[in-house]
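Structure first, sequence second, as always.
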């Protein structure tokens, strides 16, 4: 995973932690 994807994923988790894809809890 590239840095941009990592940053976007982190931002998405912060904005919507209950609906963030690709998190360890949902995998």
């Amino acid at each position: 995973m590239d840095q941009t994807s990592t940053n976007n994923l982190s931002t998405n988790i912060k904005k919507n932690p209950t609906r963030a894809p690709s998190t360890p809890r949902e995998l």
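Margin note: The mean pLDDT is 66.
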